Amino acid sequence: MKPGRAVAFGKSAAQYLVGCVRHTVTAKPRVEPGDAGLLEAVKQWQQVFEHNPVMYFMVDPAGTVMNVNTFGAAQLGYTPAELIGRSVLDVFFEEDRATVRACIALCLETVDQSHTWEIRKVRKDGSVLWVRENAKTMLRANGGPIVLVACENITERKEAENALRQSEAYLAQAQELSHTGSFGWKAATREITWSKETYRIFQCDEGTKPKISFMLARIHPDDRLAVQQTTARAAREGKDYDHEYRLVMPDGSIKYVRAVARATRDASGQLEFVGSVTDITATKEAERRLRDSEQRFRDYAETASDWFWETGPDHRVTRISEHSDTNTAPAGLIGLTRWDIAPDADLEPEKWRQHRAALDAHIPFRDLVYRSKDRNGQPIYVRTSGKPFFDADGTFLGYRGVCTDVTAAIRADQAEDALRKAQAELAHVTRVTTLGELTASIAHEINQPLAAVIANADACLAWLQRSPPDLKAARRSVEWIIEDGKRASDVIRHVRALAKRSDIEMAPLDAGAVVREAVALVQREMASHAVSVRMELSSTLPRIFGDRIQLQQVLINLIKNGIEAMEGIDDRPRELAIRSATDDNGAVLVSVSDCGAGIDEQAMDRLFMPFFTTKSSGMGMGLSICRSIIEAHGGRLSAMPNQEHGATFQITLPLHREDAS
Ligand code: ADP
């Protein structure tokens, strides 16, 4: 507490008092017993001193209490006797004692000058007593200084002040937390007062007086006029106002604020607005984000060809989106259930039973496909997914979901199925046709081992007829018979497999073996056409995944085409090269190259078209079937002219998945 000059101090009374005290306390009364009038006066003043509701202390330069009036001692819970002779510091808090010493020192330095300060004292019971002290050093008769202190109890005021300060602090904190400042605005004098938070919101130095010009400068130029109009009207009509506007902060950022003010009258009857100003930037941002995301979903919904539906707790349609002219959302569904409208409800009872069980269990469902009708009553296929929704208490309210018209996709699937079937049939027919054409080759393939069987059987008989029979040689002959028999039966099994109408059987295959088996069937065909075959098969080929019969059909077809392409060639050896390799991606390549007539450019584009043929007896289906077989395997079939003579047909097949991983 800083000691300051006393503004008012009962000077004459104090001086007189000190005079009296000089007599009564510091020096024992030296009033003669006969001086009755004076004695009476001293007594009276002593009464005043003792019971005047002001606390008086007399303290010597060392801080020892020389005297204290009864009132003063009682205020602190003591009797005067308990305090006299003690250090005055005893009635102060430890932490305030340095201040007290400084105050006393100041008084001692400035004899006859009054000083005043406010400080806490501590009562005997430990409670606090706030006092306003008025002190002055006076010189005693013997010239020694004494500090006279008069104190007034200001505890109540201090407590009120503290309470006020505290509630102000709470308010400031609440304002800060809620980003809400308060303000007062006297319309007549244009005087404005702001709370700390309002200063913060406007980013204005708290020391400066808020001015309308400053506020206007802060307000976004586009909002300025509206703010001026609102406040001017409020001032004119003496009415409350509530408005939002933007501030442009010194760093260029935008702040949204909402100001709400109530019109009141001050003590002098003048119009005054008291209000709050809230920083609503975060709310505005959140609102904007919400709006954006809502708009985003609306955009998606409006551009989607899907439609959205909502059903109630009884699963009857309550809402259906009708945002687009192009959508096929059926009309007139409100109030109906899904199974009311689906013509397949009776045909597929199990599907619908499961669906209704899911709905009754209030669990989400996905990709239910059913038949329905479009706006024009045309049958359509619909795929729908939905999820249940509930109110805040968890009560089931219904389902929301989306429907897609999948008619085209389903029709395409059906068409593809039909096409696949037709292709398989055709592949089978052409395979059988090819086998027919290959009868000579096949017969040769079977005849060769059969001839060997007969020869070996003859030999065996001859070995047995010897005397003694050469059993060892006979056994060898029988072993050869068995081997050749197996070879013949393998060929027959293979031909039967090719001729059989079987479903496609995808399996991991050794590409080399598939090629070799196919070549075996056309060996004779090649020989009869004076065609030699060169096999360049990689020994490290990974396995492929496919249908053995179909792949062999493709190879036989390509080989046969190669043989036919070389038919008229007499000026060079008729050679067919069959190669296998892997490409950079690890896919398996098998190629068949001939040195025949080659393919002219116009034919190149049409080779794989059904019924394209340049042969008098050709059907033109071979390559088209080959390509569809290879594509069904996830591969590619391509043709390219060779550099010198002839053409190369190349098959690219993906790896068997497990081997690839
Ligand atoms: P087809 O053999 O019944 O004509 P393909 O679909 O197998 O039917 O062949 C279509 C056409 O492609 C043949 O007529 C021929 O003109 C051409 N072609 C096929 N393979 C070769 C080849 N290796 N060299 C040149 N032309 C070929």
From TrEMBL:
InterPro entries: HATPase_C_sf (IPR036890), HATPase_dom (IPR003594), His_kinase_dom (IPR005467), HisK_dim/P_dom (IPR003661), HisK_dim/P_sf (IPR036097), PAC (IPR001610), PAS (IPR000014), PAS-assoc_C (IPR000700). It is found in: Cell inner membrane. One of its GO terms (biological process) is regulation of DNA-templated transcription. GO terms for molecular function: ATP binding; identical protein binding; phosphorelay sensor kinase activity. SUPFAM superfamilies: ATPase domain of HSP90 chaperone/DNA topoisomerase II/histidine kinase (SSF55874), Homodimeric domain of signal transducing histidine kinase (SSF47384), PYP-like sensor domain (PAS domain) (SSF55785). Its main location: membrane. CDD domains: HisKA, PAS. Residues 441-657 form the Histidine kinase domain. Keywords: ATP-binding, Cell inner membrane, Cell membrane, Kinase, Membrane, Nucleotide-binding, Phosphoprotein, Repeat, Transferase, Transmembrane, Transmembrane helix, Two-component regulatory system. This is histidine kinase. It comes from Bradyrhizobium vignae. The lineage of its organism: Bacteria, Pseudomonadati, Pseudomonadota, Alphaproteobacteria, Hyphomicrobiales.
